[in-house]
Design a protein that fits this description.
The protein contains ten helices and 32 strands. With 458 residues, the protein is an alpha+beta fold. Among the domains are: 140 residues, no CATH class; 83 residues, no CATH class. Strands 4-3-8-11-12-1-13 form a seven-stranded mixed beta sheet. It has a six-stranded antiparallel beta sheet with strand order 7-6-5-2-9-10, with no helix packed on it. The chain has a three-stranded antiparallel beta sheet with strand order 15-14-32. A hairpin with a 2-residue loop joins strand 3 and strand 4. Helix 3 packs across helix 5.
Length: 458
């Protein structure tokens, strides 16, 4: 045993900490802290009670949690309480905590915490329950896990385990690079989460043999440029053309995230040639939700596109102003698969004049509402437009306003791709693997100029 490991062991014994976990952290500093939301339905869910089972022996402070035992952590009196559950009996284990850390007492990689929410999910290695403040205190569960075990729950979530191994290996390298880069930007006890805001992660539930093989066979491999980790972005499909990052988000671009044709994605992607039709009212609502209100939508114009044919400037004209929408917002504001699209507008036809039944001495006749003169409490008035309400002896009739002739009634978006289109296309990676390209070929095509580095780029 090396002297450093002997000192580490003595330190663990002195602090009553599990040696396996501390040794793992010391030998591999790539430790992920991931808020798990999947068991509770969404990232917006805020549980105040979490039931769980430990699969493998764990410790929490100075308490031992035996494998197979059931527990519940709950918020009481503004603090976390931990109880063991045995049939109908609950036994206090820890009281009045702001954080409860579960650490494996044995083999961390094969120790799991099973969280019981709307669905049951299993997570390898450690679990921390943190008290979240605010008006209604809640619990934030954080999976503390090595990046390699984390990737085993990411890769098959982002890409089907049934896909070709070389595509899965490319996904593993990209996901590892992205994960480590994100964790380096986290400060102190900060964390990422398990949603697509970072990378979709489902723990042990989603693990598959092919994805595990892809992770294990590329262990420690990341992509670097000029000695630094790259932004290893990827999306489902680029629609046959990768996009430069500066054409999607603000800021400077990256030399390895460029726009170019992608024959592999175009050949296989199921997201080519989609269409979505939105009414003018739908467009107005979506703009308002994004704080881009224009009032009643009168026209929509695609003014310019990038070489990839993704939208560079989409103008929406309304009776209260005009909004110019570009880059990724041209996709996200309208809830579309991608920003690689063209538009077709459908305009309103001249409206037929609204008519009202007029009963006279010789019978009832239909008269155009516009142009009528009616007696009111204020005297004789002209009816100038639709949108009027006529009160008769026995009923009231409202005449709805019609769209002005030439105003847009709906817009049809016709496009290709799914996602931002920057970096690797997952469908394109699959096609390359089908054509006997290996994962180095795939990453070289989608991240030109980036280098494959070992040992996490250290």
């Amino acid at each position: 045993m090396k002297a450093s490991r002997l000192v580490l062991l003595l330190l663990c014994l002195f602090l009553n900490l599990p040696f396996a976990v501390i040794a793992r952290a010391a030998e591999n500093p790539q430790i992920m802290r991931v808020e798990v939301t999947a068991p509770f339905g969404s990232a917006g869910a805020i549980p105040s009670t979490i039931n769980f089972t430990v699969l493998g022996d764990y410790t929490a402070a100075d308490q031992t949690l035996s494998t197979g035992s059931k527990y519940v952590v709950t918020v009481e009196n503004g603090a976390l309480q931990l109880y063991q559950i045995d049939k109908d009996t609950t036994t206090p284990i820890l009281k009045d905590q702001i954080s409860i850390m579960l650490q494996p007492a044995g083999d961390a990689g094969n120790s799991m915490v099973e969280l019981d929410g709307k669905k049951v999910y299993k997570y390898r290695e450690g679990m921390q329950f943190m008290l979240a403040g605010g008006a209604n205190s809640s619990i934030v569960p954080i999976n503390i896990i090595s990046v390699e075990n984390y990737l085993k729950g990411v890769v098959p979530t982002e890409m089907s385990d049934s896909w070709e191994l070389e595509a899965l290996k490319a996904q593993a390298v990209a996901a590892r690079t992205y994960a480590i880069s994100e964790m380096k930007s986290v400060k102190g006890d900060g964390y990422i989460n398990d949603t697509v805001k970072y990378q979709a992660y489902q723990g042990v539930n989603i693990e598959g043999d092919h994805a595990n093989q892809a992770v294990d066979s590329t262990q420690g491999q990341v992509l670097t440029y000029s000695g630094n980790l790259i932004s290893a972005l990827y999306s489902a499909s680029n629609g046959g053309y990768t996009e430069a990052s500066e054409n999607v988000w603000s800021g400077n671009g990256a030399p390895y995230l460029i726009e170019k044709q992608d024959p592999y994605d175009a050949k296989i992607s199921p997201h080519m040639g989609w269409t979505v039709t939105l009414s003018a009212a739908d467009i107005a609502k979506k703009l308002a939700a994004a704080n881009l209100s224009v009032g009643t939508v009168q026209n929509v114009q695609l003014l310019s596109s990038y070489p990839s044919q993704r939208v560079a400037d989409l103008a929406v004209v309304g009776d209260k102003g005009t909004q110019h929408i570009s880059k990724d917002r041209a996709r996200t504001v309208f809830g579309l698969k991608s920003a690689l699209y063209t538009i077709t507008t459908q305009g309103a036809q001249p409206a037929a004049p609204a008519k009202v039944a007029i009963k006279g001495k010789t019978g009832t006749v239909q008269k155009a509402l516009t142009g009528l003169r009616v007696y009111t409490a204020q005297g004789l008035k002209n009816v100038t437009s639709a949108g009027s309400v006529v009160q008769g002896a026995n009923q009231r009739m409202a005449y709805a306003s019609q769209p002005a002739a030439g105003n847009v009634v709906s817009v049809t978006f016709t496009g290709s791709g799914w996602g931002h289109g920057v970096g690797m296309s997952q469908w394109g990676a699959r096609e390359m693997a089908k054509e006997d390209k290996n994962y180095l070929d795939i990453t070289a095509f989608y991240y030109p100029g980036a280098q494959l580095s070992q040992n996490y780029g250290n």
